[in-house]
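Replying to the earlier thread about multi-chain prediction with a worked example.

Input:
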Amino acid sequence: MSASVLLAGTTSASAQQTSNKADLPPNLAAATPLITNIPGRVSAGETTSLNGSWQYIVDPYETGFFDYRYKELRADNPAAYWHDPTPKTKTDLVEFGWNDKYSLMVPGDWNHQKDQFVYFEGTVWYQKSFDFARKLAEGSGKVYLYFGAVNYRADVYLNGHKLGFHEGGFTPFNFEVPDSLLKAKDNNLVVRVNNTRHKDDVPTLNTDWWNYGGITRSVDLVEVPASYIRDYSLQLEAPVTKNAVVSGYIQLSQLDGSATADQKVHIEIPELGFSKDFTVTGAKTPISFTLPHLELWSPEHPKLYTVSISLPMSGGKDRLSDKIGFRTVKAQGKQVLLNGKPIFMRGIAIHEEIASEVRRAWSKQDALQLLGQAKELGCNMVRLAHYPHDETMTRAADSLGILVWSEIPVYWTIDFTSKEVFAKAARQLQEMITRDHNRASIIVWSVGNETPVSPARTEFMHQLINEAHKLDNTRMVSAALEVNYNSGKNVNLIDDPLGEFVDLVAFNEYLGWYGGTPDKCRTTNWATPYNKPLFISETGGGAKYGFHADSLTRFSEEYQVWYYKELVSMLGRMPDNWVGMSPWVLADFRSPKRNNPVYQEGWNRKGLFSDKGEKKAAFYILQGYYNSIKNEGHGWPAKTGH
Ligand code: GCB
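Result:
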């Protein structure tokens, strides 16, 4: 099966189950193709936020969905939770309803909001009533309901009708809202959210992070003219000369690629005095233009330009603005070139979590906190593990000048033999890339982490790499691989067959934490048969903040310091294609797999910051190393040779 069949989102076993889509057109069975740059539509007045307080019903038995014989409720059955529960007469029996007593904030995971939700995995129904004043006359505009992310499955109903469903906990989706459904007053929006883990989902049953559930990111209504700019791509072409060439495409609302009457799209970059019309003849039209005197985006100079794009002939006039940095990136030989020059990545891996409040991060303030900590460590790069983070994060990285590795949750042992699982992964990849392909900060799309080598897995991952290249040929594609530890005396090889297909060979290693003590680093060397840049996507050891002992004592800060000291001296002997690393991990994070009752208590302790935000002693070792690279090394680590 080709991935594109599923990317269209019209078929899946679970879609077939939901018979309650009544009188809606069939293309609304699943999410409709993504509209991009929601933040850039705010200034155009196209968005209405539905964030805030929503009401909820916890439904572990799925009573809102199944009858007492466990048959799906018919779409028109008033007992289904997507209907208005208000009794018509005082005699009516109604066994559900919405009440302020039962409220949750959106965005936000449910786990941290009420004690009863801490360990909850299952179904929670969310409800929001809202009024909607159209800006455009009925029939001359379109309204979409946009979700930043819902973990894991969302079934969405408006005024008793199903708009569709979406699977995948970390990527955005939207539905077109038919004109006939939307009322000026008292719209009844209901979302059935389910975060049950399944073997055949992406991720699968087993991960080393907390399965936060809920409507974890923003919800917006987006009102656009009938013809509008759905997506666009503006990428700087290499080599960069005095007259920089920017190319990409404009994609209008027509989805089938059919040619429409010519339309003019206007692009303006006021700071550069650039202003030009482009004739757009089909749904997706390639464009290209030159920009003289362009200041390139880089970590040292994160220059962003305000770009405004408008479709003046579209009746309502569609107009959006974006802040875009222009830079080139590519793997060439043994190096990664940013704007044509080799770069060394001083990274750190980050989970999307505010540990001190035991919750998912989502806001701009959250992003600035996490990326601010990375900056303090001396980083110019972050690995956003192990799933796409909120758009606030990649936008903040753009403005702070932090390079980003962005990943889909193809993690450990997902079912590599299943076409359905492949389709789920490919869909998340497509949603991640579609949302963020204009972010200068993003230099790597990662298709997974520590997947066990087998022919089925390598074929699966290879296909994902191909998909990523097809969707975006302007960035590197990679995956965090494992090490072949038995490959030779004192040499560990990164010879995973997937290395042949990635642009950047990345590997996770825990020498001195899993198996043996950090002094093993003294005799270990690293090598890869691939003539490509080599990146350490994880390395690290755990410590409980404030626990002091001798350095041989596990979970002491002294052990973690020892680990980082040995690591740093080993790094002097890395091969000459070594281009950077993102140690594991910025901050302690919640994980149900970490059950040492004294030192872990449900936390993975490999953070350089504690769960309360305190710096552990090892923070200063890595900070010192990164500072020495920045200062004495002028961007490059010192080599001590083998
Ligand atoms: C890994 C995984 C990461 C874990 C980490 C650990 O290799 O990629 O998700 O959390 O190790 O702490 O063991």
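The first helix runs from residue 3 to 7.

Feel free to reuse this layout for your own posts.
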